[in-house]
Amino acid sequence: MFEHKTAPILPKALFYRRLALNAGASSLIVGGTLAMGVAGYHYLEGLPWIDGLVNASMLLGGMGPVDPLHTTAGKLFASFYALFCGLVLIAATGILFAPIFHRFLHKFHLEMDDERAWRAKGTAKTRQDKPAAHEAPGAVHPPSEG
């Protein structure tokens, strides 16, 4: 899905497209989890749809349930749903931030490869390698005597 470490960095337009796709995937996962929670509270605990939405949203957001649970099935569902919501939160966050983290590491790796290439040529990448402000770029100087 991501470019290889030796490939050039992705242009910004394609990066933003990748970021939008990952945000969409993350939203689908969170939305599906929310729908599953609403249905579970409605069918297993007998809560109205809106109360099921409130309870599922609060659990998915890490706050905890609002309404007291009365049935064994509802209590079991709420406990497993709460654990599942914690995993979904971690997964959705990872999916959302993966392109940003990858781009950072890719830039860092390309910089490291550039530095290694300079060292392999036997030259040090220093301030002296850059032309002075009054010199034209690429100016050739005769070797100094002495």
Q: Can you characterise this structure?
A:
The chain is mainly alpha-helical and 146 residues long. The protein has one domain: Helix Hairpins, CATH 1.10.287.70. The protein has helices at 12-45, 49-60, 72-120. The N and C termini lie far apart (57 Å). The mean pLDDT is 82.
Features:
146 residues, Helix Hairpins
Q: What is the strand and helix layout of this fold?
A:
Elements: H1 12-45, H2 49-60, H3 72-120
Shape: elongated
CATH architectural name: Orthogonal Bundle
Class from secondary-structure proportions: mainly alpha
Uncertain stretches: none
Sheet of most strands: none
* Average pLDDT for all residues: 82
Give the oligomeric state of the chains in this entry, treating copies of one chain as homo and distinct chains as hetero.
single chain
CATH fold topology: Helix Hairpins
The strand count comes to 0
How far is the first residue's CA from the last residue's CA?
Answer: 57 Å
- What's the helix count? 3
**Percentage of β-strand residues:** under 5%
Helix proportion range: 55-70%
Global Rg? 28 Å
Order of helices and strands: HHH
Count of spatially separate domains: 1
- CATH top level class name: Mainly Alpha
In short:
The chain has 146 residues and is an all-alpha fold.
